Amino acid sequence: MRGKFITFEGIDGAGKSTHVEWAAALLRQRLPAGATLLTTREPGGTPLGETLRDILLHRPMHLETEALLMFAARREHIAQVIEPALSRGDWVVSDRFTDASFAYQGGGRGLSRAKLEVLEQWVQEGLQPDLTLLFDVPLEVARERLAAARQPDKFEAESAAFFERTRAEYLRRAEESGGRIRVIDSTRSVDKIRAELEEILASA
Ligand SMILES: Nc1ncnc2c1ncn2[C@@H]1O[C@H](COP(=O)(O)OP(=O)(O)OP(=O)(O)O)[C@@H](O)[C@H]1O
Ligand SMILES: [Mg+2]
Predict the structure, then answer these.
(1) With CB atoms counted within 10 Å of each terminal CB, which end of the chain scores lower, N or C?
(2) Atom of ligand 1 lying closest to residue 95 CA
């Protein structure tokens, strides 16, 4: 049986990484016999992908170059890690995937949805997450949390307007996703959020 593919999304500082390993541990308790679960992230997830991540997060570039490199890293990630795991029945949890490209390169930077859809089809050949958890917070909350946490990378240094557009595109996609994308109100406490995640993941 094919494994499940679950992705975590949301703007920088929304709380994805706070919950990824916790959710993975929860899911591991109820995997089918013989299956394992791996956690990974985008951009990245492979040695080449991590090199591309470093370039993407730190070097200025044309918005289409950025989108192409994101999908190049994703092509490698799918070929080397995600698809082999899913086809042998293992589960994959990824901190970001393609919804982030639509939100950041599309919503944030203004790259046309049509171009992103071409790349999505080319690189994914129909592969879609079974479930996506969208951690949603107003920009100010994300900013406040990040300010306490670390130095900003290229994306985190973007304007408030950029993140408003990014968040809006995430939410628009959630509405159109036919239930694949579940919006999590991430302004709540970690414990409250985890109680909701337990419910959602119980039927994953
Ligand atoms: N529900 C919460 N309540 C209070 N603080 C939180 C909550 N969730 C996360 N944080 C804090 O906010 C900061 C950002 O969280 P986290 O690193 O999980 O975000 P992220 O979505 O992974 O961001 P990025 O996209 O930049 O990796 C961390 O310092 C984290 O401890
Ligand atoms: Mg993170």
Answers:
(1) N
(2) 22
